[in-house]
Fold this sequence. Notes:
With 237 residues, this protein is an alpha/beta fold.
Amino acid sequence: MSSIADNIGSVTRRIQKATLKAGRDPGSVRLLAVSKTRQPDELRVAANAGQVAFGENYLQEALDKIEALKDLDQIEWHFIGPIQSNKTRQIAEMFAWVHSVDRLKIARRLSEQRPPGFPPLNLCLQVNINDEDSKSGCTLSELPELVDEIGDLPNVKLRGLMAIPDPDQSEADLRMSFRKLANTLRELKRASPEAGPMDTLSMGMSDDLEIAIAEGATWVRVGTALFGARPSKHSQS
Length: 237
Ligand SMILES: *Cc1c(COP(=O)(O)O)cnc(C)c1O
């Protein structure tokens, strides 16, 4: 378990190197530690090594860890999994960011259920960038209307887009998928400048974070390279 701290160091160096190579500002790419299936003690080791942002996919599992780690008040919790509409209240109450919003109903409920006095909940729209039927996410054509509607909601802040491209495509195609997401964000921001800061691209994972950073990622979501391989029954994408 002590190697989690080493892994944070090496992933951080990968991010710095890719950021530099892309000619981007150091610090413009943040590391989201994807901690699904991991035990609270593993997250605690990562937090003690300086990791701040943790991403969880399953609500009940996340709530158990949030409770177990509530003494670590520097942790910033991100929800990155599929969202059922009957689960939005706890997400609105316990998380700082949601990367996986793919329909208006969910965004509306998160805004309504954000507790009074909390800062706006940061949202990314998850885009089905390779148009695979099996994956969650909205289509590119749904985005303009969604952005305008979510931009009007009072207690959420529209930060940008998230995608999980098909990992089985060639490196060149993967790069084009990331580029498409970046171009889409730019167009949406131009078309709807009032909708929110739209400063965020959540893209890139353990195996492809360098490509994602070269194409403009601002959050890379990394699980395996920090915590090791997951048990296969829970592993996703
Ligand atoms: C599991 C997961 C990741 C992390 O994937 P790794 O390949 O383990 O780095 C990133 N994003 C989402 C949405 C995930 O579900």
